[in-house]
Amino acid sequence: MKAGLMMLVLPAAALLMGAGPIPQVPDLGPQLERFTYPWPVQTMEVDIVGSPAQMAFMDIAPQRPNGRTVVLLHGKNFCGATWGSTARALSEVGYRVIVPDQFGFCKSSKPRAAQYSFEMLATFTKRLLESRGITRATIVGHSMGGMLAMRYVILYPASVEKLVLVNPLGLKDRGEEGVPYTDVDTLWANEKKTSYASIKAYQLENYYHGVWKPSYDRWVWMQAGMYQGTGRDTVALAQAKTSEMIKTQPVAHELYRITPPTTLIVGTLDKTAFGRAQAPTNLRKFLEPIPTVAPRAVKQMPNARLVMLEGLGHSPQVEDPARFEKALLAALEMPRR
Predict the structure, then answer these.
(1) How far is CA 5 from the centre of its chain?
(2) Which residues of the chain carry a pLDDT beneath 70?
């Protein structure tokens, strides 16, 4: 049985909340070597701090091209594979779809010497698109990928046709709210404690508002499987460094620089407030989640609108693909102002 198929069927009977002990998490490899993606995975070879590194991506060609390209940027606890249903819906209506795994995540390299920044990730994303002959595209970013999408637009505004942000992080400067800096070593130590149970508990509370579906298990197994075996330390360090990146590099003060036509798609039940775990206990309840922050943030962008998806959480593309894809396609089809 292929690893990707195993991930679909193994959790269903045994891993629902309260359904008994959690089986052994398979070692999927630090670059998800044993996890199957929905389309062939290619790599772009680069050097990072003097060491070779590979940026993994999927390039999905439509049967009836409409001449436009959409780039899907994953969140911190997600991978390119999580965009499977979205990419398929876009391809079916004629879009070419590029789905990268960023450095430090999923099937891409996790160089220990890398100093992560959104500028670095945006630059490599731009290089990837140029290597595929793409000079202009619509950028769609979810969660951390929304922060990256905003940084990409700020750096390369002429290369962006439209921008879609899905429950993006970075709309607030959490430091201004009192969330303290946490050093990489402390974050790294915490990341080493990551387990299937901790991932699922976090997502259940923050992403899916206490309602779990068996279809979500695949994505928990995908993430947990990177932490198994000899790759655990490497994955944990990359996650720690990228957590520091998110905390220290908000886009909140530069929203006025996001000039292309922009749509924010936000699930109203999202409880995500990045940095809550590092905040003092008496401050945590005051940290505003994304649905509260988004209406104010969209007013700071010159050419933006907000679409609220009632009853959905942090990952609407996973929770209700059909409803999300309808909202996304409507955003892409809106005339440019």
Answers:
(1) 22
(2) 1-23, 336-337
pLDDT for the residue 12: 32
Q: What is the reported pTM?
A: 0.92
pLDDT for the residue 22: 59
Q: Are 270 and 290 in contact (CB under 8 A)?
A: yes
* Angstrom distance (rounded) from CA 81 to CA 172: 28
SS3 category, 216: helix
| Structure-token match 């992080």, residue found | 169
The encoded tokens of residue 235 equal 């994955």
Task: Give me 310's structure tokens.
Answer: 């009632």
Burial (CB count within 10 angstroms: exposed 0-12, middle 13-18, buried 19+), residue 271:
middle
CA angle 76, 81, 84 (to 5 degrees): 120
CB 246 within 8 A of CB 274: yes
**For residue 296, what are the contacts with CB-CB under 8 A and spacing of at least 6?**
none
Quote the pLDDT of residue 59.
98
Residue 58, classed as helix, strand or coil, is: strand
Q: Is 22 exposed, middle or buried (0-12, 13-18, 19+ CB in 10 A)?
A: middle
User: Encoding tokens for residue 132?
Assistant: 């595929």
Find the Cα–Cα–Cα–Cα dihedral 125, 231, 183, 207, rounded to 10°.
70
Gap between the Cα atoms of 18 and 38, Å rounded? 30
For residue 189, give Cα distances in angstroms to 112, 197, 204, 236, 239.
Answer: 15, 17, 23, 8, 11
What is the spatial distance between Cα 274 and Cα 278, in angstroms, rounded to a whole number? 9
Indicate the SS3 state at residue 57: strand
Location of structure tokens 């450095």: 103
| Beta-sheet strands, E only, within the chain | 42-48, 51-60, 69-73, 96-100, 137-142, 160-166, 262-267, 304-309
Q: 111 near 45, Cβ under 8 Å?
A: no
